[in-house]
Structure formats: structure tokens, C-alpha cells
Amino acid sequence: MKAPERDGVQDFSALARLRDTLRKLYHGRTPAAFRFQLAAVIIDLAIIAFFIATPVIQDTSSFLWLDYSVAALVAADMIARLLASNDMLRLMKQPTSWVDAFILLTLLMPSALANLGFLRILRLWSLSRSGALWRFFEMRGLKKWREASHAVINLLTFLFVVTGFVYTFFFRTGAGLEGYVDALYFTVATVTTTGFGDIVLPGIAGKITSIVTMIIGISLFVRLAQALFRPNKVFFPCPQCGLQRHEADAVHCKACGHLLNIPDEGD
């Protein structure tokens, strides 16, 4: 009569061991963890490349097979990260989790949500918020470039989101690589306010899209310039509370008041 209880204990123990292993892989700093995290980043970049190419290849015979394969990878990654987390509820409330859940939904329903497929590139923004990606920067002494890297990724994410939006709603009649390149060309010309005028979006919707693209694009360019030439914060974990971003001349942590010892650029 006690066999089911033993089975339940064994199942719980196996789940605990799995979670412990995943924590070590996702958050550890051992050589094995480093290799795993590097492989995860490479797979993420390959998935993002697939998202960028989606408008061009979505009419091919192999697209659905690729789409569902990527869905399986994204789902597996989401489940593994939940199991590796010490606070699942908190992780589920984070914006990156919402983005990943939305991306998974578009992958599972590629036909019904075809017009929202361009938002999958937000996976790039989600990746930029992962600790594993920036751990490589820290290990190579490139921590000071983290702020600039965030700005570059935000700009690239915006460019590809707008390109996908413009292609989906304005250039779809010229489907294929040529239509996508036209959409990308228009987006870059608009964001940089070059304004050649050889490609314009028709109607009021086109004008509003151009206005929003210019305003947000200029803001992101200014943010990138600030991050490159005048970084306003440095990354230095507080020994007391763990807060990582501080003013360059901060003496005390603004969260807990702990005395900091932030090294100068020449240190």
C-alpha cells in the first residue's frame, strides 16, 4: 500500500534533481555551464535569424516544419527557465516572459496570427535582457560596453519590427525578398530622416507610420549616442543588495545605502 507514496517521493526527488541541474546550467559559472549558456545564445541567435527571414520564406513548402520546430525549441527553453528559477511566479510576471509567450503563440498559430508575425523579432530584445548574454561581456572585461550594447540591440529590434510591420501591411503585394528589402530600405531611410522620397507609404496610415518611425527612431539614435559617448551609469553589483546599475561617481548604493567602491576606468 505504500508503493504509490514511494513513487511520489521518487518523482519529487527526480524533479528536484532536474531543477538543480537546470539552475547550475542556466545560472552557474562552471565551464559546463558556460558551454551550455553559449550554446543557448547561439540557438537564440539562429531563431532570431529565422524570424527575420520569415517574411521571405513563409510561402515555401518547408516553412511550417521550421516554424513548429522553432516553437518546440522556444517552449522547451521557457519550461527549462521556469524550472531553473527560484521564484517561478516572479519570472512569469516579467515582460520578457510575456514576450516569449506571445512569440510561442504566433509560432503555434502561424496562419491565424500571420499579420503579427513581425513581432517575433522582439525575441532579440528578450535575449538582450538575459543574464547569460552579458555574462560573456563580464568574463572578457567588456562590462563598460553593456549600456551601448543595449542601445544597439534596442535600435536593431525597432528597425526589424518596423520593417516587418511595413512589409506586412504595405509591401505584401510585392511579396518575397524584393518586397522585404524595399520595406527595410524605407525603414532605414525614415529612421535616419534621409528622406529620399523614392519609396513612400500611401494614405494617412502610411504618413502616421512614417511619423511614428521617425520620432522613435531619432530617440533611439540619441540614446545610442549617449551610451557611446556619455554613459550615465556603470554596472557594478552592490555587495549588499545586488543592484547593478549606479552613477559613475556614486559613493553609496541608492537602494540600500551600502558603501560602494566603484573602480575608475583606468583601474
Number of domains: 3
Assembly status: single chain
Largest sheet: spatial strand order? 1-2
Radius of gyration: 22 Å
Number of extended strands = 2
Mean pLDDT: 78
Encode the helix/strand succession as letters. HHHHHHHHHHEE
The helix fraction, in percent, is 55-70%
- Proportion of strand residues: under 5%
**End-to-end span in angstroms?**
67 Å
* SS content category: mainly alpha
- Sequence stretches where pLDDT stays below 50 over 5 or more residues: none
Main beta-sheet strand count, sense and barrel state: 2 strands, antiparallel
Overall 3D shape: flat
Total helices: the number is 10
What would you say this structure looks like, in words?
This protein has helices spanning 3-27, 31-57, 63-84, 88-93, 95-108, 122-128, 131-139, 146-170, 177-191, 203-229; strands at residues 233-235, 245-247. Helices cover 66% and strands 2% of the residues. The chain has three domains: 1-141, no CATH class; 145-231, Helix Hairpins (Orthogonal Bundle); 234-267. The protein has 267 residues and is mainly alpha-helical.
